[in-house]
Specification:
Structural class: mainly alpha
CATH class of the largest domain: Mainly Alpha
CATH topology of the largest domain: Arc Repressor Mutant, subunit A
Radius of gyration: 25 Å
Number of strands: 5
Shape: elongated
CATH architecture of the largest domain: Orthogonal Bundle
Largest sheet: 3 strands, antiparallel
Order of helices and strands: HHHHEEHHEHHEEHH
Number of domains: 2
Strand order of the largest sheet: 3-5-4
Number of helices: 10
CATH superfamily of the largest domain: Winged helix-like DNA-binding domain superfamily/Winged helix DNA-binding domain
Distance between the termini: 68 Å
Strand content: 5-15%
């Protein structure tokens, strides 16, 4: 039994992504569990069976070892032309089918239609992604128009979230991307966006400030209609 096959089994069985650190912890945990059984049997006076060499060799498995095992798996998948690969997202590693099989996989979900964002929504999302955390006023200063509707649409689709309040007059809300955003666009972090380092350094237009700024309110949840 190899580390690569163990990592593969963990990723297949887990419903959630697993980080390299978590994978290594699980592997070491299995070794520690076997060692505890061995020690208990020794204390009871029985003749325990020594741990197999392959299991003992995993006692010091590190996150780097887990990452290398995933690299080996992906290389094997590529060479054998498998329909999936292991990709890393903000929450960890997960097995995904390759994009070229999308037309076939989509037939499993006939009731789901692809949802596309409008041009203005994509512009708003791009500004947030590259300059997060960012206020609505700063977004509107770049776009030159009100962004209330676009921001609400992105919130509803879980592509952005409220990340706190800025230390500015009125304590405006700060917006940033979600894990769903990274999942949807197939990236691990903001650094994976095209020209991320350059675009994050560009000076943005300054938002206009009012003489008496009001604290921005959190989006309201829909309410139930009043009973007749």
């Amino acid at each position: 039994m190899t580390l690569s096959s163990i990592v593969e089994s963990l990723l297949i069985a887990s419903q959630e992504p697993l980080s390299s650190e978590e994978i290594a912890r699980l592997v070491r945990g299995r070794v520690a569990e076997a060692e505890d059984v061995l020690l208990r049997e020794t204390d009871e006076g029985s003749s325990p069976t020594p741990l197999p060499d392959w299991l003992s060799a995993l006692a010091n498995t590190s996150a780097e070892d887990a990452s290398q095992a995933i690299t080996n798996l992906n290389q094997h998948y590529s060479e054998s032309e498998r329909a999936f690969s292991i990709l890393e997202r903000p929450q960890g590693w997960k097995i995904y089918t390759k994009p070229e099989f999308g037309d076939f996989v989509r037939l499993l979900f006939p009731g789901r239609k692809p949802e596309r964002l409008s041009g203005p929504a994509m512009e708003t999302l791009a500004i947030i992604a590259y300059r997060q955390p960012i206020t609505k006023a700063a977004i509107e200063a770049v776009r030159g128009v009100s962004c209330d509707g676009m921001i609400q649409k992105l919130l509803d689709r879980d592509l952005i979230r409220i990340g706190g309040r800025a230390e500015l007059p009125g304590r405006p809300l700060l917006y940033q991307t979600t894990d769903t955003f990274f999942e949807h666009f197939g990236i691990k972090s903001i650094d994976d966006l095209p020209n991320a380092s350059e675009l994050r350094k560009i000076k943005l237009p300054e938002p206009e400030t009012s003489l008496a700024p009001q604290e921005e309110q959190l989006p309201l949840a829909p309410t139930e209609p009043a009973a007749p």
